[in-house]
Amino acid sequence: MDDFSKLAKLFLEGNEDDAIHYLSQMGPTPNRLHLYEQFLTPTMYHIGDLWERNEISVADEHLATAVCDFVLSQLDSMEKRKVEKGTSKALLFGIEEEQHYLGLKMVASTFREYGWDVRYLGPNLPLDHALTQVNRYKPDVIGVSAALSYRLPVLKDVIEHLIHLDWSPTVLIGGRMAKEYDLSSFASDQVVVMKDLHQLEAWIEGNEEDINATS
Ligand code: B12
After folding, report:
1. Contact 147 CB / ligand 1 (< 6 Å)
2. What is the largest CA-CA distance in the chain?
3. Where are the beta strands (DSSP E) in the chain?
4. pLDDT at 26
5. pLDDT attached to residue 87
6. Is 117 in the pocket of ligand 1 (CB under 6 A)?
7. pLDDT value of residue 82
8. 19 or 31, which is more confident?
9. Whole-angstrom Cα distance, residue 155 to residue 161?
10. pLDDT over 90 (residue 4)
11. Which domains does the chain have, with CATH numbers?
12. Angle between helices 58-76 and 102-113 (to 10 degrees)
């Protein structure tokens, strides 16, 4: 059985403790991002395949999601790298009606790992409400997540509003849609499309100094 099938089994049994124990054995100093990309994400994709093939029920899939969410929160609260807390700010949300949020939660955790101040607003946020918080918080980076292709028009509208904010924040676009479809037409100096957390990490490492200089 491969690693994510083992983890999927624990998720589907609702076995939070063993799932955390299993992940804690993955190295002397397990790196959070590695655990997200190598274990949690493929496990949830596997759960999606089982669901699509009717091998598990909707209730099973909900249970697995809840366990994954719990495990993710536990990993996020593990000791962070010793980085100086900076002044960079990231605000994250899922566009209206989008309910898939585990990826965005991993993004929040990755920014925190780098000492960023993070406001994670969760999924399904109408643009008007997102803008209220955005204008109050004035983040350097706004991360948006979308999974389903029929959200493309809404995503386009969200990007259009965010790039016209007067302090020109960087807009990061991610989620299943960015993985499965070519969204390069959205990309610009201000908008970056990302397929995974490795790209996010490389971006943070490459841009932190610039952002701190303008904050
Ligand atoms: C769990 C789940 C749900 C849960 C979500 C709960 C939650 N808390 O998130 C619930 C039950 C609500 C759900 C509902 C639905 N779902 Co659903 N779901 C899934 C499942 C199994 C896992 C999703 C997940 O968490 N993946 C793990 C995360 C970590 O992956 P990720 O989102 O891709 O994130 C990674 C990157 O994309 C990136 N990332 C994500 N966001 C961002 C943002 C930024 C800024 C950056 C930099 C990076 C980034 O970081 C992550 C790590 O690399 C997927 C299967 C799959 N293949 O994804 C189906 C899946 C996405 N769902 C699907 C469907 C069809 C639906 C429904 C339409 C079902 C229905 N009929 O009701 C609804 C739609 C709900 C809605 N309005 O949005 C289909 C989509 C198929 C398609 N062709 O589009 C999938 C693929 C299942 C399948 N195989 O059929 N779902």
Report:
1. yes
2. 52
3. 89-94, 117-120, 141-145, 170-174, 191-193
4. 81
5. 85
6. no
7. 65
8. 19
9. 10
10. no
11. 3-76 (1.10.1240.10), 89-214 (3.40.50.280)
12. 10
